[in-house]
Amino acid sequence: MKRSTFKTAAVAAGTVALVAALAACAPAAQEPAAAPSGGESDAPAAAAPAETPEPDSFGVVVAESWKDIYPNEYQTYMANESNSPQGKQDYLTEYPELVTMYAGYGFAKGYDEAAGHPYSLQSVAETPRVNENTLANCITCKTPQYTAMVNSEGDSAYQKPFAEVLMQMTEPISCYNCHENDPTKTTVTQKFFVNSMGSDVDKVSTDSQVCGQCHNEYYFAPETKATTNPYTGLEGMTAEAILAYYDEMGFKDWEHTETGAPMLKAQHPEFETIYGGAQSSMAKQGYTCADCHMAPAKAEDGTEYSSHNLVNPTEDPAIMEKCEGCHADLPGQIVQWQKETTDREHELAAKLDAYIKTLAEQKDSLDEATLEQARQIHRHAQFYWDYVMVENSEGAHNPGLAQENLDKCEDELKAGYALLNMTY
């Protein structure tokens, strides 16, 4: 997934520039027992249902079964259908260099901006990136039914054919993903992500982990095909540490058809960008993804609840009024951060494109050591670039970190240009 509902977003934990304002006025973490500091949330908790509806054959209570028990939450969840696949950005058009960068990989065939959660199954069914050899692990975060299957059957579920498993799935991302079958609490249902948190599992609110369990960087383990994170604990959740992890194990997603470099495809590291390594100041204070993307709401009968329509926070008055006392123009500030990030992405994409094409031209004339070095530069530079580009906020979650990772991309490219006698 690329930017979807995060197109101009600034998740609460994301940016240093938001610290002073939101520390004073935004709601704190919604689950104090799991938050590192912070106070109790002013968001109302869901009341326990008198009776849990009947689960389906996978053990999942589907969203529609909750609609009469939690009508406000259900209605706002269904509002996510407005974020439809129609009219989405084609990233191969926005970044034409991607065809060169992803040569030999499925993303060169199709890469569109993601739609809302209700379309998760439709989107994975329609992507041109799958083929007859694709495994079911590609469905990991597309439906709670597959999550339940994995939790029941173990790693063998990852090895099943994609098409065979997809035919069984009917429920897109919904209630079970974040609540299991108990709406009174949040639960991280993706157990591989719980394992990857290691001993740091209690250092981040569960309200953020339920988002992070799918909004993260992952790979498919070569032997088991299991969805796996390239780290254990928060310290390892940086682009540099993740790259070192992949290098040490000799992992590659594919071999680039033009340069022969063993390549890596970054996924969507929102959680790592916010909580990884040194963490953002907002993260340290215990703010969650829900604080900026799930607005407090009140029904006509006066019932208070958390909206389940996942929004761009700058477009929801109930969220933005918390920030107005400290920000004269927060939406404008976010647009500026995003422009700085995307402008630099485009600049470096052109540099990467030229480097890849030059390496492809020269590779047969380079000695073995130089060729290996040039290919490693391609692998590293592109990973740092990709890590920023695929993170769903266009830099707004953590603009300083986005620039640091683009700096690392540029440093690699400068070394590569010098190695190939190119003018930078």
What do these coordinates show?
- With 424 residues, this protein is mainly alpha-helical.
- It has a single domain (4-326), classed as Flavocytochrome C3, Chain A (Flavocytochrome C3, Chain A, domain 2), CATH 1.10.1130.
- Helices cover 40% and strands 3% of the residues.
- The chain has 18 helices and 6 strands.
- It has helices at 19-25, 71-78, 91-94, 98-101, 120-126, 144-153, 162-166, 175-179, 191-197, 206-212, 239-249, 270-275, 281-284, 289-293, 317-320, 330-362, 368-389, 399-419, and strands at residues 219-220, 227-228, 254-255, 262-263, 296-298, 304-306.
- The strands form 3 sheets. Strands 1-2 form a two-stranded antiparallel sheet. Strands 3-4 form a two-stranded antiparallel sheet. A two-stranded antiparallel ribbon has the order 5-6.
- The longest helix has 33 residues, at 330-362.
- The radius of gyration is 22 Å and the shape is globular.
- The two termini are 32 Å apart.
- The relative contact order is 0.17.
- The model is unreliable at 1-42 (pLDDT under 50).
- Its main location: other.
- It catalyses: 6 Fe(III)-[cytochrome c] + NH4(+) + 2 H2O = 6 Fe(II)-[cytochrome c] + nitrite + 8 H(+).
- It is an enzyme of class 1 (oxidoreductase).
- GO terms for molecular function: heme binding; metal ion binding; nitrite reductase (cytochrome, ammonia-forming) activity.
Brief synopsis:
The chain is mainly alpha-helical and 424 residues long.
